[in-house]
Amino acid sequence: MYLLLLIPAYVVVYFLIIWWFQIFFDIKEKAAYNWNHVLIILGIYFLVIYWISFIDNHEIANRIQHAMWWWFLMVILTYFSILASKENINKFQFIFLAFFIATTFGVFNELAESVFQNTLNIQFAPNINDTWFDLWANSIGAVLWIIIFINFISKKN
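Now predict its structure.
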């Protein structure tokens, strides 16, 4: 159920980040929303679900899921949103924005899990250490994916 809620959430977040960039950078030019970006995001989402399903160890699968979903997808969302918002940013700005956006949504995810676990009795974590390990996986994923995607940033996106 929770994984199904995340599908439209990623699409909405793509458009929200574009809108936020338009306001944050005071961009007067109309954003160039790209539905191909949405299809790529959804394709990666389902590819991660498929890939994770082959990992027998639940703990390792959970860490990879966090590194892929919250960091890889959020860095891609940030990158695509920058392209769509028509903002030219440098590599330092990209590092900061990608880290900020991915961290924010990673924390929102952990908060949502705690609400669902405590109100609906849906078990996401057997103990508090799972949350700490999730945050570590998110952080390590952040560094990895930002290092990779920074190579695609140029002053003329």
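The chain has a mean pLDDT of 84.
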